Amino acid sequence: MAAGEGIETMLSLRCAMPSMAMVAALSAAHLAAILFQATLRRLYIVRDDDRAGNGAVAGLFDRAQSAGSKAMVLSPQCGDFNEDLRNLDISALRATLRVQIAPEDVTRFLSTRVWTGIGDEARTLL
Fold this sequence. Notes:
The protein is α/β, with parallel strands linked by helices and about 130 residues long. Helix content is about 45%, strand content about 20%.
């Protein structure tokens, strides 16, 4: 699961990793207050490159670790992932994410194929 501040940031990340569960907080304070299930194994914390984002990430990171979840921070090249998607492109965004997520999640979440749930067919992303 990925959690981050701002709908635009999280929708941009969703473009690159459409099969990952995601939650968007309305502010850095809300991001720090997110509650997650005890069964969560890994939490990707999506940070914005600003002071408020850094503070929210630190609090959420510590809470996730204390709850037994592995916390990993995803950092944009620009100010946030929406800016990355607008200024770079989807391939560059995926390349940025590929080196930040767990190796076992690369195939699962960065595939260019999306399972539609209808039959055995997959749709290839453009």
